Amino acid sequence: MSLGDLREQVRRTLCKGFTAEQAAQIVQATIPLAVSAGHPVLREGDAPSGLFLLLKGTVEVLKQAADGHREPLARLDAPTVLGEMSLITARQHSATVEAVTDCQFALLTRAQFQRLLDAESLAAYKLIATIAEVLAGRVTRLDQKVLELTAVKERAPAVEELAAFKQKLFSEWSF
User: Fold this and answer.
1) How would residue 174 be classed by pLDDT, with cut points 50, 70 and 90?
2) Domain boundaries, the chain
3) Rounded to an integer, what distance in angstroms lies between the CA atom of residue 43 and that of residue 91?
4) Distance linking the first and last C-alpha atoms of the chain
5) pLDDT digits over 18-74, tens only?
6) CB count in 10 Å sphere of residue 107
7) Which residue, 8, 15, 21, 104, shows the most beta carbons closer than 10 Å to its own?
């Protein structure tokens, strides 16, 4: 993929409000990364690595269940972003992402992102706004799922546990 194509992909995927110059700042800060089908892109519990812009391919997001098996959460096709929470926080990865097909990424590391912030790059701040929008959408979908699960007439203990989790999620949410 040419730098011009990558710049346009960044503008379309990360932030439609980026100027060409702002997209170029992000592209220049990224590292190209290829991951073969069947291999992990990132692992649940590992140290945060940064924002992965999936340019080509398909990945699956998996979460370790209490009994040890990995539960699929989502299958994502390019173009999309992964690891956005680890770009903003120093928390470990919350899920495992595996390549379903051969994948190409542009990785914006936490260190490179911090350099952009330190330079007061408007592109970095626009990226934060985009990440906030993505996370807000995910919380909305989580709310909907919780409502679906708690609407079951025969409330099993697992549903009560999920309701308690929802309460904890919102009571401990901090900005």
Assistant:
1) very low
2) 3-171
3) 13
4) 37
5) 888 888 898 899 999 999 999 999 999 999 889 998 999 999 999 988 888 898 988
6) 19
7) 15
**What is the predicted pLDDT for the residue at 153?**
54
Pair of tokens at residue 114: 């911090």
Q: Which CATH architecture fits 3-171?
A: Sandwich (2.60)
In terms of Cα–Cα distance, which of 30, 124, 48 is closest to 92? Answer: 48
Tokens of 19: 């100027």
Question: Are 59 and 26 within 8 A, CB to CB?
Answer: no
Place of tokens 């330190």: 118
Numbers of helices and strands, H then E, in the chain: 6, 8
State residue 153 phi and psi, 5-degree precision: -65, -40
| pLDDT single digits (tens) 85-130 | 888 887 888 899 999 999 999 999 999 999 999 999 999 998 888 8
Burial label for 104, CB within 10 Å (0-12, 13-18, 19+), is middle
Treating both helix axes as pointing N-terminal to C-terminal, what angle do 122-150 and 157-171 enclose, rounded to 10 degrees? Answer: 150
Q: Are 38 and 101 in contact (CB under 8 A)?
A: no
